[in-house]
């Protein structure tokens, strides 16, 4: 039988969300909010449709939205992205990842990824004939030893994929990590895909270190971001990518034949809504409240909390009370306790025995309380 991607099937998010529905469990598996986005935002989108914004947007994205992106990024990170030449609106983060890899990876190219890693990276690299070189991070801190990363470098290294704030661990890149990365890539042609979709979800007064801040990295980086996370509307599948002009040209060659362009009324509606910066600037405190509540509730369960510095995911370890494989444990939590999570082993290519689960806390207070009530019975 034919298979281009043997060993790949429905993503863990699809599997766990389906199982949650089947068993009417509280779904803390796939990352998405269980509350509504701002009605004002919906009005702006409806208005865009009523005002006739219903035909193809420009291939690169609606100019007003690209201009908003460039201004936001350049203000926050002190960079100088050009709205026409260096910003493209994408059909969500995953399309941006796919188009970036398609535009950059040839057969035989090596790509370094840090595991646990978002599940689309490795299969997409392999689909293109690329080779995945994994650096495994381990709980509880998931630290990176850059001397070991250096050992993964060969003459065929084409790209490094970074993700900060990190899904699933909530880890963020530190200044030390960034400086090591600068040193490691200096005088090379290595490209960087920087998945920054959780850039505005960062806690305890920490700062997001976008690669846009660092000129040495900006010149070799494709940075990916998400309006779904920013606006609590993951189903709109809208995001953007930033890259220096020479890379953006290549990115757009693929993007145009992948989705051609992104749906128009969402882009116009989002651009009009975001004119008011209050709509997104307090995102960190909004989610920090949820994180703090969820952590204090979970502290009463048998689970051990791992750190969470960013993203809307909280990981817990249970290795001190069970030998059970994490996929088995996650399924049992759904069937026997009515709470869905993601087994973190799904983010590794090799088998690991970490026994860590990921919960999404982008949920109503009531949902978080009810789910922990159920987990208390464990
Ligand atoms: N990014 C989200 C998560 O990690 C889900 C993405 C998806 O389902 N493709 O849960």
UniProtKB/TrEMBL annotation:
<dbReference type="GO" id="GO:0016212">
    <property type="term" value="F:kynurenine-oxoglutarate transaminase activity"/>
</dbReference>
<dbReference type="InterPro" id="IPR015422">
    <property type="entry name" value="PyrdxlP-dep_Trfase_small"/>
</dbReference>
<keyword id="KW-0032">Aminotransferase</keyword>
<dbReference type="InterPro" id="IPR004839">
    <property type="entry name" value="Aminotransferase_I/II_large"/>
</dbReference>
<feature type="domain" description="Aminotransferase class I/classII large">
    <location>
        <begin position="25"/>
        <end position="375"/>
    </location>
</feature>
<comment type="similarity">
    <text>Belongs to the class-I pyridoxal-phosphate-dependent aminotransferase family.</text>
</comment>
<dbReference type="Pfam" id="PF00155">
    <property type="entry name" value="Aminotran_1_2"/>
</dbReference>
<dbReference type="InterPro" id="IPR015421">
    <property type="entry name" value="PyrdxlP-dep_Trfase_major"/>
</dbReference>
<dbReference type="InterPro" id="IPR051326">
    <property type="entry name" value="Kynurenine-oxoglutarate_AT"/>
</dbReference>
<dbReference type="InterPro" id="IPR015424">
    <property type="entry name" value="PyrdxlP-dep_Trfase"/>
</dbReference>
<dbReference type="GO" id="GO:0030170">
    <property type="term" value="F:pyridoxal phosphate binding"/>
</dbReference>
<keyword id="KW-0663">Pyridoxal phosphate</keyword>
<protein>
    <submittedName>
        <fullName>Aminotransferase</fullName>
    </submittedName>
</protein>
<dbReference type="GO" id="GO:0005737">
    <property type="term" value="C:cytoplasm"/>
</dbReference>
<keyword id="KW-0808">Transferase</keyword>
